[in-house]
């Protein structure tokens, strides 16, 4: 492999500085091989002969916003699965059942508003849609809407299509599969698709957690922001947590990943369950 087709220390620094400033994701030196592997497909797609030439194309051309989005897309980690960290979904279901039984208005007088803020290929928001639809089966007056966002255009495209390999649905219980998943008419394809009733409950859009345009007034009853803040600096993480807090209605719930913490920024939150917080002010 020639020097032209390897990522030099200088080019690694260019990528790292751009991704850090744009998306808040940290890419230290030990990530260089990973970055090289992920950007190689963009070299092929753009016909560039070296990483230096590719980065000149993507980062030095002020009008090439589309390629900068694809660069971020290639770098972003998008690991997800249905019912990932399943205790979160059990907790949410039980919490809402109790709230509805005690006369809580969210979900009845107006739809419960949920934000899946790092949705990747859509498994998290569709899991939420299954869980909330099960609640609606028991309480027909209950209603909800889910907004799902991610920084990477490619994963949002997959999420909107809502088609998954059969192997990916292993965490989904059999009754939920029957209600919410459609098998391909061609058995050889080994695919399923989320039913239209669930797809209609979820809207998708691109969003950057670091510098995105957050709601100016509290908008959400529930926010899932899981397994993404581990990639951010402490300053960015604390800024995001505060902006998520102000996006929640008072009494709303914030779910983060089990490998994450809101750190010292607990003002305005109370802990309800490990990695589940309620906005109190």
Structure commentary:
This protein has helices at 9-23, 32-46, 51-60, 65-75, 86-101, 123-138, 153-161, 174-180, 196-199, 234-247, and strands at 112-116, 144-150, 163-165, 181-183, 191-194, 202-206, 220-225, 248-256, 269-273, 276-279. Helix 10 (234-247) links the parallel strand 7 (220-225) and strand 8 (248-256). With 281 residues, it is α/β, with parallel strands linked by helices. The termini are far apart. It has a 7-stranded mixed β-sheet. It is globular, with a radius of gyration of 20 Å. It is built from 10 helices and 10 strands. Helix 1 (9-23) packs parallel to helix 3 (51-60), helix 2 crosses helix 4 and helix 5 (86-101) packs parallel to helix 6 (123-138).
Please supply descriptive tags for the structure shown above.
7-stranded mixed beta sheet; single chain; alpha/beta; 281 residues; 42% helix
In short:
The protein has helices spanning 9-23, 32-46, 51-60, 65-75, 86-101, 123-138, 153-161, 174-180, 196-199, 234-247; strands spanning 112-116, 144-150, 163-165, 181-183, 191-194, 202-206, 220-225, 248-256, 269-273, 276-279. It has 281 residues and is α/β, with parallel strands linked by helices. A hairpin with a 7-residue loop joins β4 and β5 (191-194).
